[in-house]
Amino acid sequence: MGKSRSGSVRRRNGSIYARISFTDDEGHRREVWRKAENKTHAKALINDLLRTLDDHGERALEGANIDIQRPSR
């Protein structure tokens, strides 16, 4: 069974987003959204996300979404 994945540029609340959707290893449909500056940037983000998915798998996309927070003093 081949991997099902696609990308699109979407507008949400007046902002532009790059969206990719794919089927994970367990057969569940997943989506990843990234905010973009403009349509051209969104298309570049889609290509980067799909390349990351192909090269490193879905775990790399999950890890890139974690914010690192420093402890407050």
Write a brief structural summary.
The chain is 33% helix and 34% strand.
Indicate the mean pLDDT.
82
Structural class: alpha+beta
Rg over C-alpha atoms, rounded to the nearest angstrom: 14 Å
Question: What is the helix content?
Answer: 25-40%
Oligomer: single chain
Regions with little confidence, pLDDT below 50 for 5+ residues: 66-72
> In order across it, which strands form the biggest sheet?
1-2-3
Please give the number of β-strands.
Answer: 3
3D architecture notes:
The protein has 2 helices and 3 strands; from the N terminus they run βββαα. 33% of the residues lie in helices and 34% in strands. The longest helix is centred in the middle third of the chain and has 18 residues, at 39-56. The chain has one domain (5-63). By secondary structure, it is an alpha+beta fold. It has helices spanning 39-56, 58-63; strands spanning 5-12, 15-23, 29-36.
Question: What key attributes describe this structure?
Answer:
73 residues, globular, alpha+beta, 3 strands, 34% strand, three-stranded antiparallel beta sheet
Indicate the topology.
Elements: E1 5-12, E2 15-23, E3 29-36, H1 39-56, H2 58-63
Antiparallel strand pairs: 1-2, 2-3
